[in-house]
Amino acid sequence: MSERDVDDRLEVWCAGEDWCPITSTATILGRKWHPVIIHRLLSEGPQGFNALKDAVDGVSSKVLSDSLDDLEEHGLVAREIVSEKPFRVEYSLTERGRSLESVIVAMRDWGQEHLAAPPGS
Predict the structure, then answer these.
(1) Which residue of 51, 83, 109, 110 could cross-link 88, Cys pair, CB 3.0 to 4.6 Å?
(2) Cα 61 to the chain's mean position, in Å?
(3) For this protein, what is any one GO molecular function term (predicted)?
(4) What are phi and psi of 59, to 5 degrees?
(5) Where are the domains of the chain?
(6) What phi and psi, each to the nearest 5 degrees, are found at residue 6?
């Protein structure tokens, strides 16, 4: 691992503990909409806020906005102002965000194999 890679790592309170990478990753991805947002950006590419809201069916504007802010703070999503008039923002995954692809795909695959809708739904 290069010095640059170490400098780009996220700081976590439990660094050094053998369980820390698991819990820290789960903390970032454990919020309800985070994996879905990342999945949509992986599969559909950069999107404006409204397109992303439509792609993440069921999320409120406030929750999507808060989630995007959190993902941006963790260096997973980039926010770019595309135009001033009318004001338009586009969200895309950073290199760190794209590196989660295998994790997101594994979560989807596991869910498809092991989860079922409740009876009567």
Answers:
(1) 83
(2) 16
(3) DNA binding
(4) -90, 140
(5) 16-101
(6) -65, -40
- What does the DSSP 8-state code read for residue 93? E
Structure tokens at 72: 């941006």
Where does the pLDDT of residue 7 fall: very low under 50, low under 70, confident under 90, or very high at 90 and above?
low
Q: Which of 75, 39, 77 is nearest to 55 (CA)?
A: 39
Burial of 82 by CB count in 10 Å (0-12 exposed, 13-18 middle, 19+ buried)? Answer: exposed
Helix intervals (H) in the chain:
3-7, 20-29, 34-44, 49-55, 61-73, 95-98, 101-114
pLDDT for the residue numbered 94? 97
Q: How is domain 16-101 classified at the CATH fold level?
A: Arc Repressor Mutant, subunit A (1.10.10)
As a whole number of angstroms, the distance between CA 121 and CA 7 comes to 48
